[in-house]
Design brief:
- The chain has 109 residues and is mainly α.
- The protein is built from 5 helices and 2 strands.
- The protein has one domain (5-100).
- Helix 1 runs parallel beside helix 3 (40-49).
- The longest helix is centred in the C-terminal third of the chain and has 15 residues, at 86-100.
Length: 109
């Protein structure tokens, strides 16, 4: 759960270290299934801790799942609930990955 030692250790590591976390896997930790409401608290705790160190991922290809794989679009839609602010979503979806992977800026037209 949210107060489990392992998750609290992850939050501390994210807060204090040179650490990045991928926001993904709601379908893997949810016991309720779609729309994965029980994953909301985990995502919001990570976002509240250090949004500039988060990236988003769909976890595709979805392997070793006991049920049909989730729709990646549905997983992406969760981000709007997890991060209501557009600037935070843009950072998680694009800007943070640009910094993490040191992508070069596109050439000027």
């Amino acid at each position: 759960g949210l107060y489990a030692r392992g998750f609290q250790d992850l939050l501390r590591l994210l807060d204090e270290a040179d650490c990045w976390v991928k926001l993904s896997g709601a379908h893997r930790i949810s016991t309720l299934g779609p729309p994965y409401a029980d994953a909301l608290g985990f995502a919001r705790a990570l976002i509240a801790t250090r949004p500039e160190r988060l990236v988003w991922g769909s976890d595709w290809p979805h392997v070793a799942l006991p049920a049909p794989p989730p729709n990646p679009g549905d997983l992406l839609d969760l981000l709007a609930e997890w991060a209501p602010r557009e600037d935070t979503r843009n950072a998680i979806l694009a800007h943070n990955a640009h910094r993490l992977y040191r992508f070069r800026a596109p050439p000027s037209p």
